[in-house]
Design brief:
Layout (H helix, E strand, L loop, with lengths): L1 E3 L1 E6 L4 E5 L10 E5 L6 E5 L14 E2 L16 E5 L7 E6 L2 E10 L1 E2 L2 E2 L8 E8 L4 E5 L6 E13 L2 E3 L4 E3 L5 E18 L7 E3 L2 E3 L2 H12 L13 H10 L9
Antiparallel strand pairs: 1-6, 2-3, 2-5, 4-7, 8-9, 9-12, 10-11, 12-17, 13-17, 14-15, 14-16, 14-17, 18-19
Length: 255
């Protein structure tokens, strides 16, 4: 999720995507949803190219969120989708009369019946929220959501009488509802919630499985270049396309 600046994605399936904010070249696409599935080699680099208007972003900021797949989906086909705009990631604005109370960007899941179009393998919600000073923001989630996390990017907020300062993370109670009261400087935060998968998790680097054998099998695929063979950082698009033609990913992308 790009908050400032942009990213360039290339992978061993031959997919290249450019996305971010504040440049017309991104066409409003600020978020990439990448389902690794069976596995793919990919490169994600900062977009340092000037815009058509000659502007160049110096400060870049993103959220990178990893969501575990259900066990029966870990070998699923790979998908790489860009999201952005009111039809895919709606922004929900609340006002008090003519005055702004809060703004909620729905990346995944829903807020006040406004839903994201992100394809999901399990039930979870990702929201980017800004709340004006002293105002209250509320979110209701299904009671099956046993995880609820809030990261305060800017400002501060109070949850259940406890203050959450800037750059702090709050792990909230799981009764399905949350209420955030913004501090004197307002609040800008990331909200995460979801249903538990209730499955074993074994991880090594970027590999995630249910057992040590899953990780061994995945590392074997890596060593045999079944996910594609890594390329040198900084090579041109022509060189990258030539490389993946000879060293493609063995797994399939979703139609």
């Amino acid at each position: 999720i790009c908050l400032n600046g942009g990213m360039v994605h290339r992978d061993s399936l031959g997919i290249k995507q450019v996305f971010g904010v504040n440049k017309i070249e991104y066409f409003g696409k600020h978020t990439q949803a990448l389902n690794f599935g069976a596995g793919v080699v990919h490169e994600l680099m900062w977009d340092n190219t000037p815009s058509r208007r000659g502007q160049q972003v110096i400060n870049q900021e993103i959220y990178q969120i990893w969501v575990d797949l259900p066990t029966d989906q870990r070998m699923s086909n790979i998908s790489v989708d860009l999201l952005g705009g009111k039809d895919e990631t709606p922004t929900v604005v609340e006002k008090r009369g003519s005055r702004l109370k809060s703004s909620t960007l729905v990346i995944a899941g829903s807020h006040r019946n406004h839903k994201s179009t992100m394809a999901q393998k399990s039930a979870y919600t990702i929201l980017l929220v800004t709340v004006e000073p002293g105002e209250v923001w509320r979110q209701s989630s299904p009671t099956s959501y046993h995880s609820m996390i809030l990261y305060m990017r800017k400002g501060s907020g109070t949850i259940g009488g406890r203050r959450v300062p800037k750059h702090y993370t709050a792990f909230c109670s799981t009764d399905g509802d949350i209420e955030v009261v913004a501090g004197s400087q307002g609040a800008d935060f990331l909200y995460l919630a979801g249903e538990p998968l209730d499955q074993n998790v074994v991880a090594r680097g970027s590999m995630v499985g249910e057992s040590g054998q899953d990780i061994t099998d995945a590392m074997k695929d890596v060593n045999q270049n079944k996910m594609g063979k890594p390329w040198e950082v900084g090579i041109s698009d022509a060189e990258w396309r030539r490389h993946i033609r000879f060293h493609p990913c063995s797994y399939n992308a979703e139609e």
